[in-house]
Design goal:
Layout (H helix, E strand, L loop, with lengths): L1 H18 L16 E5 L2 H14 L3 E6 L4 E10 L2 E15 L2 E19 L3 E2 L3 E2 L6 E12 L3 H15 L1
Antiparallel strand pairs: 1-5, 2-3, 3-4, 4-5, 5-8, 6-7
Helix pairs in contact: 2-3
């Protein structure tokens, strides 16, 4: 019995250590850059088109800096007890006269709401006074970068339509 327990503990240790080892190396992997696009427009025109696109897609603009060319916007979705938040970060870089490069980065976060009822009952039928109530807690389940090529291409197409 002790040998089985020892083997299980060693296996759990190796599995736990191997899952997060060298995660930072994913940064150095060469991937196609599908979250950037070059537009023929001035920085002001591109900033306005980007803002129009975000508002038409029902994003809430959290932070906008026209001098630095950055925008952070978010959109919230509710599905039963799950809250899904999509945060979109945008940065405009001037390349040369009339050409602007736009970088978009999307992050999706999933949060789950847990409801605990702390009401006390007499014989499981009659609620007693002064007993608890309901308590809601939010727990972040996952957070990941959006790596869907069609997501970014649809956004760039919508920005292009707003430029014209």
């Amino acid at each position: 019995m002790q040998k089985i327990f020892l083997v299980l503990m060693i296996a759990a240790t190796f599995i736990g250590c191997s899952s997060t080892k060298y995660v930072y190396r994913q940064i150095q992997q060469n991937k196609d850059s599908y979250n950037t696009h070059t537009f023929t427009a001035t920085a002001v025109q591109l900033q306005k088109a980007l803002t129009k696109m975000l508002l038409s897609k029902q994003f809430a603009i959290d932070k906008e800096d026209t001098l630095a060319g950055t925008i952070i916007a978010s959109r919230y979705f509710s599905q039963s007890r799950n809250n899904i938040v999509v945060v979109l970060q945008a940065r405009i870089f001037s390349q040369d006269e009339g050409h602007q490069q736009l970088f978009l980065n999307g992050i999706q976060t999933t949060q789950r709401n847990y409801v605990v009822d702390r009401t006390r009952f007499l014989l499981w039928l009659i609620p007693l006074p002064g007993g608890g109530g309901k308590e809601v807690t939010k727990t972040k389940e996952s957070e990941a970068s959006i790596e869907d090529k069609s997501f970014y291409s649809d956004l760039f197409d919508a920005i292009g339509k707003n430029l014209n």
